[in-house]
């Protein structure tokens, strides 16, 4: 008998302890010291853009989250963005397309949300060759700073018109 495909569910429907366990397995115990956590701050994730994939035994195999963040320009004005990630897949399930499925589900949710207006720009820290398939690029983020170490070619943006954002600024938690 064929295995059933994992089911996409809202992350709010998943036990938070299961999410934390998956994140620890995917990224290691020191994950909370990463720069992405400093960028997000202590804001809650955005439920409409955060999902889990569960297998036929209802075990969590992958997650994606989105967070409200801002790019603060040199004049001190905050420009809202959505930070994508982490995209986490159990190590033994990596390479099976779960990350792609989550990225596409989130893009579809953004499309639904953005039908009336263009969705907010999205930013993430990740591998350009992988996330470039979903429209993310480091072409516009070279003048941005973060509250911790990062590699410039891994700070990626997806935005229909990046000219709406300042070329220089600091990415950090949304304080709105």
From TrEMBL:
Question: SUPFAM superfamilies attached here?
Answer: Acyl-CoA N-acyltransferases (Nat)
Question: Which Pfam family would be a valid example here?
Answer: Acetyltransf_9
Q: List UniProt keywords, sorted A-Z.
A: Acyltransferase, Transferase
Q: Which GO terms describe its molecular function?
A: acyltransferase activity
Record's keyword annotation contains Protease: no
E.C. number, please?
A: 2.3.-.-
Every N-acetyltransferase domain range: 6-162
Indicate the enzyme's highest-level EC class. transferase
Q: What is this protein called?
A: GNAT family N-acetyltransferase
